[in-house]
Amino acid sequence: MSELLDTEPTLLIIDDDPDTIQILSSILADQGRILFATSGEQGLRMAENYCPDVILLDQNMPGQNGYETCLQLKQNPATQEASIVFVTAQSEVGDELRAFEAGAQDFISKPFSPVVVNARIRNQLTIKRQSDVLKQLADLDGLTGVFNRRYFNRLGEVEVRRHYRQGFSLAIALVDVDHFKAFNDLHGHVAGDDTLRDIAQVLNGAVRRPGEFVARYGGEEFAIVLPYTTYEQVSRVGEWLCSNMRSRAIQHGGSPVSDVVTVSVGLAAGTPGRDTTLTHYVQQADTALYNVKQGGRNGFECVSV
Asked: Would you tell me the Gene Ontology cellular component terms (predicted)?
């Protein structure tokens, strides 16, 4: 949660007029990181890549206009949460209604008043941040503090589609605690809950790059999304997870594998195709995880998607 609160806001200006971009960038310089695009098509690509908090969108652009761009932004799961503020020289009721129907949250009128522009964008950033905090609370697993399966399903699918469009490799890891039922039977459920929280901390230590995250997939099983990770790279993740879990030296008197808690890890990596889904990645990782369990647990296996 603190990472979310400490993140610098990102603003994307989509406008075909360089002078407008320069004026708005100067006015909003203290509000966060400023990005810009000079067409609707370019703006859509940048919004998907950078996930801005607020998008300032020119109402009238050649080619794909602001209304069409706004509709596409709101239809894309990767960009639909951004607050969209139309930049316009028009003030007709019909134009405003059309913009709101397309998904806009507010307007900024030309000529610009720096005080008004800053106030409106600050207001949108505040609303967006409050909404993000509430959404993240709803997406967290109550026991371990990592994301829950609902978040994994939603954001994992977004990552699959994004990596397909960009042509990059994505990796998914499934992590299962070895003989966890025996641990609970011997040490008790309170100790079991403490151990799951400890494991979640270990897994979080493996996710340091932008876009990476850990989710509790169910029971004693966790999932990790690893953007821009190839099959050749992912084996190091599996080795790191197994090694660091063993180094925590959590005693497990009921395990035939080791006297400390260990994990089995299945990893799937590759560049998704047009019809590749998150389910396909999970199935491949689950097959790898099954093989590790059949081979004695306390290890990892990687498969190519």
From this structure: plasma membrane
| b/e sequence 48-87, b meaning 16+ C-beta within 10 Å | beebbbbbbbbbbbeebebbebbebbeebebbeebbbbbb
96 catalytic per annotation: no
The CATH topology of domain 2-139 is Rossmann fold (3.40.50)
3-state class of 208 per DSSP? coil
Query: What are the φ/ψ torsions at residue 87 (nearest 5 degrees)?
Result: -105, 120
- How would DSSP label each residue in 223-239? EEEETT--HHHHHHHHH
The model's pTM: 0.70
**How many Å is the Cα radius of gyration of the chain?**
23
205: number of Cβ within 10 Å: 12
CB-count burial class (<10 Å; 0-12, 13-18, 19+) for 8: exposed
CATH 3.40.50.2300 domain locations along the chain: 2-139
Pick the catalytic residue from 220, 221, 239, 301: 220
Q: pLDDT of 248-297, one tens digit each? A: 999 998 999 999 999 999 999 999 999 999 999 999 999 999 999 999 99
174 with 289: CB under 8 angstroms?
yes
Cα→Cα distances 97→27, 105, 115, 117, 180, Å: 27, 11, 25, 20, 57
The CATH architecture to which 149-304 belongs is 2-Layer Sandwich (3.30)
Query: What is the rounded CA–CA span in Å between residue 40 and residue 210?
Result: 25
- The per-residue pLDDT for range 52-102, each reduced to its tens digit, is 999 999 998 988 999 999 999 999 988 999 999 999 886 666 777 888 888
Give phi and psi for 225, each to the nearest 5.
Answer: -100, 125
How many CB atoms sit inside 10 A of residue 104's CB? 23
